[in-house]
Automatic annotation (TrEMBL):
Organism encoding this protein: Cohnella phaseoli
Protein name (database record): Uncharacterized protein
Signal peptide: 1-25
Keywords assigned: Signal
Source organism superkingdom: Bacteria
Amino acid sequence: MGKKTKWIVIAGCCLALSTAIILHEAFPEARTEPDIRAEKKAAAEKRHSATVKTNPEAEVTVAAIGEAAAELPAGMRVVAENSRLQLLLNDKTTEAAVREKRSGMIWSTNPLDRDKDSIATSVNKAELASQLILSYYNDRGHESFINNASESIEKGQFEIAPIDNGVRIVYEIGSSENGLGAIPQVVSKERFEERILGQIEDESVRNRLRSRFFFNEERSVYERKKMQDYIVKDVVAILESIGYTAEEAKRDSESAGAAKEEGNEAPRFVVPISYELDGANLVVRVDTDAMEDTEAFPLHDMQLLPFFGAAGMAEEGYMFVPDGSGALIALNDTNKGTRAYEAPLYGPDRTPLDSGLTLAQYTQISRLPVFGVKRGNEAMFAVIEQGDAVASIRADTSGKLNSYNRIGASFRMKNMEPVEFRAGSVTRQVPKYSQSYDSGITLRYGFLSGDSADYVGMAHSYRDYLVKRYGLTRVQKTSDSPFVLELIGSIPVRETFLGIPYKSVEPVTTFEQAIDLMDALQAQGVYQIRLKYSGWFNKGYYHSFPDTIKPDSVLGGRKGFAELAGYAQERNIELYPDVAFQRVYVNGKGFRASRDAARFLNRKSAKSYKPDIVTTNPSDMEYYLLSPRKLPKVVSEFLDDYAPLGAGGISLRDLGEDLNSEVTPRETLNRQEAAELAASALQTIRDAVGRTLLSGGNAYAIPYADTITDAPLESSHFNIAPEQVPFYSIVLRGYADISGAPMNHGKDQDPRSTLLKMLETGSNVFYQWFYEEPSAIRDTKLNDLYSSHYANWLDEAVGVYKEANAVLKQVQGQTIADHRKLADGVYETTYEKGLKVIVNYNKAAVTAQGAAIEALGYRVIGGEL
């Protein structure tokens, strides 16, 4: 080791020592604890210091940067470095940080100045120093919380080890000591004398241990006496010295007929976190296979790096959340009454009954696994690469529990459901748990500066990520923008014969009538039609299990469908017959709920409901949830029948929108595995059929979508995140054609506002119609579509399309280069080749960019208008 390196190592040791003193001063309450705890903590730190492994290459790196080492945050050292980033670590507090070399910005897992926080007290102060906040259940299913600052770091219960390009930290959170659970309550005479006493050489120790048990001659067993804490520790130490484990103690007690003991276990969790530099990104992983919890205290939810990149009260900027289209949370929002933001990715999982979520709670679904924060001219942006299907995004502003604005992700590790047991007249609820999530967690953090440090830069970063990872390709350019239309074919109805009710199918748009509507549209100059045809086979819109296909005879049967497909091909109309795979509307005809449905933890077949189109409250239309395990088989069987029909495309009602797990205790298939099965099915379908139209557009489905309907064009307008942004559209524009909800089903059915939204987001016209009179669907389970009679909308739809198309055809196939808010209700979108559109949602005229824009109007700059 050279002299310079030696001096730097010595200086580093001094710096670490001074940091330890500073941290001790920052937590004065630790000095009021009993001496025994202080001694215990010191011993733990001594044990820990022996396990910390320093990366030799990191030492060379520190030496190489010379004076820059003096600029490191107090107590931190460089553990990895590349041309873009430095990864820093504090060995005492385990907080990590990333230095972006070009800007010098340091992004830390915990606020570096948290000791100055004047708001946080007690547990909130500890959470500021935590990399993990866990929630867990007790034996009654009640939830509690624990953090790794108080229950791991302060106790020295962690190990640090170098890995390629980074570092791995294993945290033991909670009690690390065995208690009464490691001592058999009752043990047979033979086991006690042979397995335990027979392994102890020192006679005095044998006698000391024997004195802690009472020999029951009648039962020929040794029974544990009552013990004080110091005796428990002594006995446990003796048993550990002979390799006698808590598992053996449990087995011996059960074999000897001991009753189950309550309260002997304490919460204990093991969580490994790794930090790794990958080019311009920091990759954070949790090896879920190596995680541990206890049977008595199962882990429920894990907040990972909840304060990474947290912004202080003096900073300006916002946090980005993927709520619907995307939304912004202003830093330091002074409204302390707003609730913290929390929303699950891909909407609620409908199989665990403990999700606590209903469809009505989220008017918009978070469909992209991303989040970010802008702090001045710098920004951090995160993509959840693995674990996204069990993740929720959490965010909150400063001034409530602490002085920081924070955003991050939490992960549902285990689901719980109370199950009732009855014994006579007594009913008791017992918590039942799914298996632990074990499919891994990976987050990729990127860092943006200058003009790219905003939500547009984040969207471009994510788009580039999707292109690189999944090979997304640009949409095919056409002369006009698409006109997307969904037609409802046949619907289920209840009829009577001689007073006896029976189920029947009623046509509301036959195949021939669909052709007539296409003729009507093309006669008025609408040519780029994409026809989604729902309710065309297996008894209508709520069709039976799609393992076989039979076009509905009331619509024209197989012959009529062939004529429609031929007509579409001849007129260059893209036809997308619709199918639902995961929502099963009929128990029978290939589907048996007891065999094929997903299940709740109580083993009942899982059902969900169709939300009301306006209120999102439950309707009377229930359906079964297909077990994700059954998806590959039904898709394969469907495609065997579908290929000969020659449709050329397919609409997938639920594969891009619904995502549900299988939570039965012995057959858990977690939501991440379900997402992988859905993606695999989508790949199979696209390879077999060609063109795909998806509803919803969850991230795992995007690589397989040509057209996406019901895409999020608005946010949920939560009080904490009132500013919506077209993040989803910025990501996908140019790589998929997107449309929002049907324009004739909007909340206010205002075609003008909808037109402006299309121009702002680059989305396309989308209507949902049927041909027959509205009375045809009255008193049916599609009654909410009463206003969808085509004659009420045809002229309006053509007019809206022509006005929108005059602008959108000029940017067909182009990405969105920029988006910004000019004033309240006034937004400017810049497309790839420079065309700008300014929209004014206000009911009064405004002046923007030097020109007047009328109320509910727009202005095109650089185009033909």
